Amino acid sequence: MCPNAMCANMSPGRRITAIHLIGRARMWFPVKLLGGALIVLAVAGSAGAQVGYDRPGSDYLSFSVHPGDPTVCAARCERDGHCRAWSFAYPLTKNVSATCWLKKQVTPRVQDNCCVSGVRGAGVIEPRRGPLEYSIDRHGGDYRNFDTSTDPAGTPCKSACEAEHRCRAWTYVRPGYIGASARCYLKSKIPGPRRKPCCISGVVR
User: Which domain holds residue 170?
Assistant: First the structure.
């Protein structure tokens, strides 16, 4: 049904349009990523699941997510009739291991780089910021790697690659996936992209 506040002064024809738009606010679309990989993302409004947000409160269940993938948390909420929203924390942010919290109410989201959160019925929406490749690993072609400072966009790793003429691509691995520290891999060639929630990658030259 159309919300009262939205429909109070609408004609029947405009009410149909409003309901149609509300119904389209959360839809599933196939998206082709780099290298031809095909995944499904939710295109949603403000209630959508987003990287970089937490939804504190109303937890009734939490568990470790051993693959470290926020889509596991979203899928668990979908299967649980009590779940209305969820939050996923990357490893070594709020817990040593990646953790999922299921929530009995849809609590307000707050910006926090620790987490990914969403409501039931919305998939995970990765940030799209130009050349940065979120949840992408470019495996192989490494000529050196090193521990680096934690950064939600992998900026120190990107900067190191840009500063070295030999470097053509890079991969930043979040803390907790291969060690307690974030790690940067600089590459002398451009390997193909693979979807992995651990990583942020980019091509420099």
Answer: 133-203
Three-class HEC string of the chain: CCCHHHHCCCCHHHHHHHHHHHHCCCEEEEEECHHHCEEEEEECCCCCEEEEEECCCCEEEEEECCCCCHHHHHHHHHHCCCCCEEEEECCCCCCCCCEEEEECCCCCCEEEEEEEEEECCCCEECCCECCEEEEEEECCCEEEEEEECCCCCCHHHHHHHHHCCCCCEEEEECCCCCCCCEEEEEECCCCCEEEEEEEEEEECC
128 confidence band (pLDDT: 50, 70, 90): low
Residue 180 included in any domain: yes
Query: Domain check: are 94 and 172 in the same one?
Result: no
Clarify whether residues 138 and 98 are in a common domain: no
The model's pLDDT over 47-75, given as tens digits with 9 standing for 90+, comes to: 445 888 999 999 999 999 998 999 999 99
Q: Which residue has the higher pLDDT, 30 or 81?
A: 81
Q: What is the mean pLDDT of residues 192-205?
A: 94
**Both 29 and 81 in a single domain?**
yes
Residue 84 belongs to a domain = yes
